[in-house]
Design a protein that fits this description.
The protein is about 25% helix and about 25% strand. By secondary structure, it is an alpha/beta fold. The strands form four sheets. It has a seven-stranded parallel beta sheet, with helices on both faces. Helix 3 packs across helix 4 and helix 5 packs parallel to helix 8 (about 300-315). It is globular, with a radius of gyration of 21 Å.
Length: about 325
Amino acid sequence: MAKILVVADMEKDNVSKSALEQLAFAKKSGVPADAILIGKGAGSQADILAGHGAEKVFICDNSNVENFLNASWSAVIVEAQKQSGADIILIKASELGKALAPKVAGKINAGVVNDCSTVAIDGDAVTVTRLSMATKVQEILRFKSPVKVISVKPGLAEMDAGARPKAAVKIDIAAPAPDPKNMLKETVFKKTQRVDLGDAKIVVSIGRGAEKNVDDINRLADLIGAAVGATRPVIEDGLVPYNLQVGQTGRKVSPDLYIALGISGSILHIAGMIKSKCIVAVNRNPQAPIFAVADYGIVGDVNAVLPVLMNNLVKYIK
């Protein structure tokens, strides 16, 4: 029988929503699941994972894994997989997760697929789907290997909002000794109170046509609890940090509401936001490709539309 090991990533000292979605997926699929927490202080979240369905929670809470290093983190996951007996390893398809998945797979001779949108389990058969060729093609892939490593996008299943923490069955995993040839001395984070772009329910994205409105758009995002994204040209102009790029070569998002301001809608950008449940686009060019995928479109200059949009969104969402 299939069994899942969820690699639970952390966000601001809390278990991410994606990890809880993966546990909800396991429960919905009728597949038992364990989870693993890695990082200094991560063990405090074990009871939350247990409340969401993790039968056992493996913990590597040690200063040697406080910062991400692929070699050490992958070794911890491999050890947890051996003790768990899981044949499916789920990891969030973040930059970290997509680097970690193939490393883990290589160590245990497993099959690996990154950036999956869906996972289907039928007995021992596991089939996944993902978009490719700038969303023009949907790949349907079936694993042949006994063990499968899958990085999945947020939204795999609806998180159980009614779940409550409960006492976890905890199993400690020893951290590997530091490798003097491969050491991380310091990680510098930019502090932000905003939700992570990948987990946000609302994303407001900035295109070339809204470069003069960056400050107002940031204020709008804060007022409605949204994350901010941007197109590659805006990133290259230095107006928004590179980790907020939405698109084929950036982050892929699937919020409930995606607001595209001054974005024409290149294929590469659309590839990163096409899974959004509702898309609202503002562009002064009525022929802009973004309108082909938008649920609601406003033809107009962002300078004129944004103040009206801000007033109404704040009233509605608040």
